[in-house]
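Adenosylmethionine-8-amino-7-oxononanoate aminotransferase
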Amino acid sequence: MPETVAAARSLIERDRGLVWHPYAALDGPAPYEVTGASGVRLHLRAEDGTHFEAVDGMSSWWSAIHGYRNPVLDEALRKQIERFSHVMFGGLTHEPAVRLAEQLVRLAPEPLAHVFFADSGSVSVEVALKLAVQYQASAGRPSRQRFLALRGGYHGDTVGAMSVCDPIDGMHSAFPNLVAPQLFLQRPPKATLVGGRLVTDELAVDAWVEAMDETILRHRAEIAGIIVEPILQGAGGMYVYAPRCLEALRRAASEHGILLIFDEIATGFSRTGKLFATEWAGIAPDVMCVGKALTGGYLTLAAMLCTAEVATMIGQSAPGVLLHGPTFMANPLACAVASASLELLDGWESRLSRIGTELSAALAPAASLSSVREVRVLGAVGVIELDEPVDVVAITRAALERGVWLRPFRNLVYTMPPYVCGPQDIKDIGEAITGAVAQVHG
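Predicted structure tokens:
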């Protein structure tokens, strides 16, 4: 297309029909153009040319926890660019990667001790699954090549990750012959935050644990690993479940020589009110995946951590190495900004406690709306669950009219705000969500 013709059309017009957006048709609703961003606000332009600002209630899909144009993160990138932006990680190493790995091991629950860097959260899950199969083969159990996961779970869009997502209610039921058939437990009993504790129906937990034990006993000869999102299932419905279920999974995995894999990609780095969600249960997995907030939303990067016992078994396997190696593994720019992001988490407890309290107050009025089934808050996660599927386009527009960017899905209108939001920002988010739901769904 000639440059003069392209310039005459708006960016949104040029985008439509050319670029796919996540889970959207090429000719779907027009996106909003981002013309800038600073602090917790996005500078946007609508299809009709209108310019406006909105508080980002989504932290750019849960990643931009320190906001936009953060001076500390910007400086970390500038300094690394002046040295080098990328080198292959095969046969080479560099200070940003080693420093970040040391930080992750220091922050992660013991006994996680080794780090594998990946391109994205989905890829870190792929690496974890491959590691579990290699581990079992090295341990003399090569028949163990399947995984046990939870209904309602979501672990990514790549092929291996898709196989351990909910097979019926998830987003990947269109690919039954592409993904490996896995084993699934019913979703654990729901938990509610009361006085800083997650409480649940203990009899329901007892029944769930019994069914879990029976399933594992029946299939133990084929299970390489158990993979779950600890405490909070994200894309599966922002569903909070009982910590005791994680304790039971830890016990069963240890009893049967199965690796326990926690997907902390969405829950890690304080989002649930704990540095890692596994801390709600007071246990540690054998393998843990992290991503999303790792770089503060600046660059794509994820990591898989495992115990020394797991790493030793991989070293003793026939290949002797973990069979994965991304081109951009441990990208120096991503590692440098991730390291700075983790340093900014100092003092997160007081910030997250304040945000959680403010979110609870800000969203409380929504409980009186006729369309609302439940309002729940865990850490810096606020959820309004409706009794019908949400009108995504209408809710998004109504929230933007109130100065807040949201991205609802299923029957949920929710927020995961940046940790640098002030009290007024949280109040604005709550009023926008409540007002939008009232306007669109009643």
